[in-house]
């Protein structure tokens, strides 16, 4: 069986009294494009920084590709990381970035890097500080992928990009995955982007993992159930209520059927889409209740 790309057990990171990540337990399989979703301050960047070895946990453990993050230079070479502001060196040209990448990374793929720069139309002589936001993101993506890592980590790389640049970045990302056979973790607060490119999901809110799994499995196991008020008080074993909404006459539940069985015996039942599922978990974590029925079904 393939080694998980990330395995975390009770992983916790605190900054003084403030929890950034609390008791995170995860087992993310290899070969996935993982969407890490949650609001600002949920703990997404903290989890990715822990995975990249940029910070150390307060307690608990995390293994990346079967080893401690950033354990040595060999482990560093197995992971490509692109931070939130897609960092590049403003005074270096595109070509100088490629030469620097080659010097720092023993498995550097020069033909791949140069072919990608040509494909996306970047001028090798142009300084990075004069590139557009989308071009900087593409350069950072190329640098990370040319390492030939086993895992690529992206911390909201498209957050500041316009829709066209964001679409181009995600398209290139999917091409990279197909071409270099790499696992990816992509942090985002844009559910539409996650739905477009990801096949595994981790929802973080209030510093805790709310749910995680393959997207198809999660959406197949979440349902909206509607019935007369008082008839949905008892649920089958293995059914977790994620959100509840009452009117004078009826009750609406969003439920997670952990055994995957559709709870048709409860009342009127329909599947819950990815966006509605994510929003429901986020509302629950924030203690604000479920999104309204009108919001959920829009």
UniProtKB/TrEMBL annotation:
Q: Which UniProt keywords apply?
A: ATP-binding, Nucleotide-binding, Transport
Glycoprotein keyword on record: no
Q: What is this protein called?
A: ABC-2 type transport system ATP-binding protein
Q: Which SUPFAM superfamilies match?
A: P-loop containing nucleoside triphosphate hydrolases
What InterPro entries does the record point to?
Answer: AAA+_ATPase, ABC_transporter-like_ATP-bd, ABC_Transporter_VariousFunc, P-loop_NTPase
Supply the source organism for this entry: Glycomyces sambucus
**Record carries keyword Mitochondrion:** no
Q: Which GO terms describe its molecular function?
A: ATP binding; ATP hydrolysis activity
Chain ranges of the ABC transporter domain = 6-231
